[in-house]
Amino acid sequence: MEIVRPTLLLDKEICMRNIERMAQKAEAKKLQFRPHFKTHQSAQVGEWFREFGVKSITVSSVQMAQYFAKYNWKDITIAFPVNIHEINDINSLASKIKLNLLVENKETLTQLSKFIKAPVGIFIEIDTGHNRTGVLPGKTNLIDTLLEIIRANKRLDFKGFLTHAGHTYQANSRHEIFNFHFDALLKMRSLKNRYKKDWPDLIVSMGDTPSASICENFEGVDEIRPGNFIFYDLMQLKLGSCRFEDIAIRMVCPIVAKNTSRNEIIVYGGAVHISKDFIINTAGKKMYAQIVVKSTGDEILLSEKSYLSDMSQEHGILKITYKDFHLFNVGDFVDIIPVHSCLTANLMGSYLTNEGEVITTSRNETI
Amino acid sequence: MEIVRPTLLLDKEICMRNIERMAQKAEAKKLQFRPHFKTHQSAQVGEWFREFGVKSITVSSVQMAQYFAKYNWKDITIAFPVNIHEINDINSLASKIKLNLLVENKETLTQLSKFIKAPVGIFIEIDTGHNRTGVLPGKTNLIDTLLEIIRANKRLDFKGFLTHAGHTYQANSRHEIFNFHFDALLKMRSLKNRYKKDWPDLIVSMGDTPSASICENFEGVDEIRPGNFIFYDLMQLKLGSCRFEDIAIRMVCPIVAKNTSRNEIIVYGGAVHISKDFIINTAGKKMYAQIVVKSTGDEILLSEKSYLSDMSQEHGILKITYKDFHLFNVGDFVDIIPVHSCLTANLMGSYLTNEGEVITTSRNETI
User: Fold this and answer.
1) What residues make up the domain containing B288?
2) Which residues of A touch B166 (CB under 8 A)?
3) How high is the pLDDT of residue B92?
4) Are strands A307-311 and A298-301 parallel, antiparallel or unpaired?
5) B292 and B208 in one domain?
6) N or C: which end of chain B has fewer CB within 10 A?
7) Would residue A176 count as lying in a domain?
8) B218: helix, coil or strand?
């Protein structure tokens, strides 16, 4: 396929290497590997995981579970607090596959217990510091209440405690990732110890991409659910979760204008392609992406002084250093690494692999 | 249709009123009305414009032009600098409809002149202060060069000068919008005066939503191209381009969790639904959306102290004042007005109208 407009390139080899590394790590540490498929949202990319023995997956919505169930995934955790309004779709899924759900409050669990029609696994979500959703580990009264409701309904099978230590994404150093992870680990382990007498089969499920990528201590953890690691991105590179050569995706954008007085190039590639997630660069400016160039045969990431500084719906504005400005001309293509690959993949809805294959995602499909 | 998950509601009546108001304004000021369809991206919504005599439209990409051409729009301006790599699609479109293109540099225009196979209208894009793309009005040497290339090719028909005064979106007051608009107007008018001797039919095309909504002076302007005005949004409300009752869209999101210690409610509705465009609220915080509630029968916008403060892929976190916290409970739905309706519409890909009709966009279609 000839590239004529903003295109999301996917390096399958790098993906396979990233999956293999994580699968091996899980195996070495005796962890169930339940990768999160919200990053790629693609049945075809999903197939790549099967080579490494993956049979159970994580998704972030009921619709995503429906999509992957259609592609023969039989063991799915929806790692998002149950939205009771979707009970019909939940019941329909639960009658077909092994479905695990997440609860974190009494109101929803009570409703779920009332309306559930098929067996489902239930994880209680624990907030280990991310401050998004989940029960605080100290609130054992609430946990006890939830467990009572679960125990009273034979269709509800308590699986264990699940956390997403997403605050690692805001870490300022690798060291901080280790700290956040260890802190979360202690909290989860203490819950496991407290409840394992009554629930001997309960598991602990953790594993955001930063900690799953760099941490080594998973004592007491039974399952990991990283997702972003298959692609990685600029945010992960900055965090130190991956190396440049582990990043499997990039956007290729045509240069449509060049502004010499502002040292800017303008590409076809904007907020509807890349997404408006940014990080703050060393100069204190919003940075939406960084640029890849060839240098003496090798690919390198240009310094942060050249970066995607702004976007409209279809335009991207790249600030370029004076030194490198001559490298970019109208009609050329520029390769950029976005800050957050999950959101870029969600917007683009398809990939072009380095083998020339076009791969689609759930966006292109009515379930 | 029963609402069970994040849904984009569209009030057709408000849309019709917004279109009518703008169409009447254009007529009163003898302006060609060429609305921008990038906001709604929907063939069905496009049909609503026909009732007001609209026959010519603006889009922001070649693919969007292909989509609307399929739905019988015969006069389309692609208001994005030509990306020469799309020349095959451009030629194919130009052979079927009246197509206008935008150029702002010699490199692209030279290539376009070489490869164009059917007649197209050409606008020269002028940068009147937005600092994105376009020729600065003072660079008449460059304009002369571009006009020479256009004149030399009978397939290229010079239409005139086009600008997007998008810096009005960054205005701090209505007064500043008036200033930006008037400044842009003067620049465009002076170009018109300079070139009308040689090109008596040239037109001036302007009209971002803020200035098209509130400014009255369009002397010397021939065409306006606002897009966002059909829906408006929180950004336009803040700018003073519209009133609350002119906003035609809102997201409806299920509440899945409630955190009493942080005064937060967590909704199903995140970055893949709403988009990460934000404005800074009065407290200096990022605000991605504001909340609509019913109060003694009427709908009102809650103060900025209650707002969408953060999002992950599927989660939205709403900070709520202590006073209003009791209004929101797990299992309820919350209505929110997003900052930027174009990006939300692009992500959602469909609308539910207040008449219960589901309307789709180009996202759901392969062209």
Assistant:
1) 244-339
2) 312
3) 98
4) unpaired
5) no
6) N
7) yes
8) coil
B100 and B36 together in one domain: yes
Query: Which CATH number is B22's domain given?
Result: 3.20.20.10
- Residue A112 within a domain: yes
SS3 A139: coil
Of B5, B257, B315, the CB nearest to A86: B5
Domain count, chain B: 2
Using an 8 Å CB-CB cutoff, list chain B residues near A347. Answer: 347
Contacts of A225 in chain B (CB under 8 A): none
ipTM of model: 0.96
Please tell me which of the candidates B60, B131, B258 has its beta carbon nearest to residue A262.
B131
- B144 and B209 share a domain? yes
Q: Which two tokens stand for residue A2?
A: 């000839």
Contact B162, B123 (CB under 8 A): yes
Name the E strands within chain B: 7-10, 32-33, 56-59, 75-81, 98-103, 120-125, 156-162, 203-206, 223-224, 249-259, 264-268, 279-280, 286-287, 289-295, 298-301, 307-311, 315-319, 333-338, 350-353, 358-360
Query: How confident is the model at residue B294, as a pLDDT?
Result: 86
The C-alpha atoms of residue A44 and residue A97 are separated, in whole angstroms, by 20
Distance CA A171, CA A179 (A): 9
Q: Which chain B residue lies closest to A228 (C-alpha atoms)?
A: B313
Q: Does B363 map to a domain?
A: no
